[in-house]
Amino acid sequence: PGATHVNSDTAQAVQWDIEDFDTDGYHDTAANRSRFVALVPGIYELYAKLHTASTAFTSGVMVGKNGTPDPSTRDSAQTGTYAGSMPKTQGTFVLAQGDYLEVFSIAQAGGLTLSAAYCVAEFRKVG
């Protein structure tokens, strides 16, 4: 994934352009790459960990449903003047068919870039 922030405390949906496996077709690497879509109604969980590759005062991550970030899932990590924070988040949501979850990265300073090699997201139906 890649994301660069230029505004203070801006949440930006992470674009996932590769995947290790997707046995149920929840994610598409070509269209709407930020979305993990519920194909059937149920309870779904999304876990994510992001790794910053550039400096920012604070970086963070949270989960959102249907394009709206959920502040209750926010995790922030202080990075000071060095790169390498690894904030993580997890959220459980009741989704209707067609609803989707996204991972949002957050930066309180401009210039935050994510390190694609160490960013992870796991989406699964749990009920």
Our count of helices gives 0
Instruction: Give the helix level as a range of percent.
Output: under 10%
The SS-based structural class is mainly beta
Main beta sheet strand tally, sense and closure: 6 strands, antiparallel
Low-confidence stretches: 2-7
| Straight-line distance between termini | 28 Å
Describe, in plain words, how this protein is organized in 3D:
There is one protein chain. Helices cover 0% and strands 39% of the residues. The protein is mainly beta. Mean pLDDT is 81; it is low at 2-7.
Walk me through the topology.
Elements: E1 10-13, E2 36-37, E3 42-49, E4 58-65, E5 68-69, E6 75-78, E7 88-95, E8 100-107, E9 120-125
Antiparallel strand pairs: 1-8, 2-8, 3-7, 3-9, 4-5, 4-6, 4-8
Question: Which descriptors apply to this entry?
Answer:
globular, six-stranded antiparallel β-sheet, three-stranded antiparallel β-sheet, single chain, mainly beta, 127 residues
Q: What's this entry about, in short?
A:
The protein is built from no helices and 9 strands. It is globular, with a radius of gyration of 14 Å.
